[in-house]
Write a structure and sequence with these properties.
Blueprint: H1 21-28, H2 31-45, H3 68-86, H4 99-118, H5 120-125, H6 131-136, H7 153-186, H8 202-215, H9 220-237, H10 240-261
Helix pairs in contact: 2-3, 2-7, 3-7, 4-9, 4-10, 7-8, 7-10, 8-9, 9-10
Length: about 270
C-alpha cells in the first residue's frame, strides 16, 4: 500500500570493475557512503563531555566540560573528512528541493520544541524504571557565552558559528543519508541499492521509528513525531534532498530558538 506510486529508481553507479581506488571501493560496498560519516560522527561524539552533575560520571575519558568546543570541532572536522571521502557515493541523488521541504522543516521545529518542553520522558518513562535510558540522551547543552569575559566574546561567536555549521549543514546530511538513503531501503529489500528512494514497507517504517528512539533516548516522543513527519515527506516527494533540507530548516530554527531563549539543553 505504501509504494503504490512507483518512484524513479536511483541511477546505478558505474560498474565497480571500471573503477579503482576510493571510487571502486565505494562502488563495491555502497553502504560505506551512507554509514561511514554517521559512524565517525557518533564515535567522535562519544568523547564529548557532558555538563557536570553530582555523582555522575564525567565521561569515559573524563574530559573537562570547558573543553567541549575543542572536542566538538574535532568531531566535526573528522566528520567533514568522512563526507569528502564518501562524496562519490552521493552522486546518485540529484539535488532538487521543493518548497514543501522548507514548510515541513518549519512545522518540525514547533513539534520538536513543543514535545521536548512537555518533558514527557520524565513523566512517563522515568516512573517505568527507564530513567537511566533517558539519561543517556542528555545533551551537552554547552552555552558558549556562559562565563565569557568581554575580551573573549569573539571566540564564543566563532564557536557558535561552528556549532551552527554542524547543526544545519552536517548533521542533516549524514543522518538523512544513513536513515532514509540506506537503512529504510535496506529493510525493504536486501539489494537495497536497487530500491527506488521513497519506497517503504512495514519493516522499513519500523526501522524509521527504531532509529530515533535509539539515537534520541532523552527526547523519545519528540524524535518519533519529528522523524515520522520527515518520513511522510519522503513518501510524498520521493526525494532525499527534500528530507535533508527539511532537517536543516528544523535545526536552523531550533538553533535560533535556543540562542534567543537560552534553552541550551535542547542542543
Amino acid at each position: 500500500m505504501f509504494d503504490s506510486i512507483e518512484p524513479k529508481a536511483v541511477p546505478a553507479a558505474p560498474a565497480s570493475g571500471q573503477l579503482r581506488g576510493r571510487e571502486g571501493l565505494l562502488a563495491r560496498h555502497r553502504w560505506l557512503a551512507f554509514l561511514v560519516p554517521l559512524a565517525v560522527y557518533m564515535l567522535a561524539g562519544s568523547l564529548e563531555p557532558k555538563p557536570p552533575q553530582p555523582e555522575a560520571p564525567a565521561g569515559w575519558l573524563a574530559i573537562p566540560y570547558h573543553y567541549y568546543p575543542v572536542v566538538y570541532t574535532f568531531k566535526l572536522s573528522l566528520t567533514l573528512g568522512a563526507i569528502l571521502w564518501v562524496l562519490p557515493g552521493y552522486r546518485g541523488f540529484s539535488f532538487r528541493v521543493r518548497p514543501l521541504a522548507v514548510l515541513v522543516g518549519a512545522v518540525g521545529v514547533v513539534v520538536w520544541v513543543g514535545l521536548c518542553e512537555l518533558k514527557l520522558e520524565e513523566r512517563w518513562l522515568v516512573p517505568l524504571g527507564l530513567g537511566r535510558l533517558v539519561d543517556l540522551g542528555t545533551r551537552s547543552g554547552y552555552n558558549p557565552f556562559a562565563g565569557v569575559t568581554p575580551k573573549d566574546v569573539h571566540w564564543a561567536w566563532t564557536f557558535l558559528a561552528v556549532r551552527f555549521f554542524g547543526l544545519v549543514l552536517v548533521v542533516p546530511v549524514i543522518e538523512e543519508f544513513f536513515l532514509r538513503g540506506f537503512l529504510m531501503r535496506f529493510f525493504v529489500r536486501g539489494d537495497w541499492w536497487e530500491v527506488p528512494f521513497g519506497t517503504v514497507s512495514a519493516a522499513a517504517l519500523l526501522a524509521g521509528l527504531a532509529y530515533p528512539i535509539l539515537s534520541h533516548p532523552g527526547e523519545v516522543f519528540a524524535a518519533v513525531a519529528w522523524f515520522s513527519l520527515i518520513t511522510l515527506l519522503m513518501i510524498r516527494t520521493r526525494n532525499l534532498w527534500d528530507c535533508v533540507v527539511a532537517h536543516a530548516v528544523t535545526n536552523l530554527l531550533l538553533g535560533l530558538y535556543v540562542v534567543h531563549s537560552g534553552q541550551w539543553h535542547l542542543v
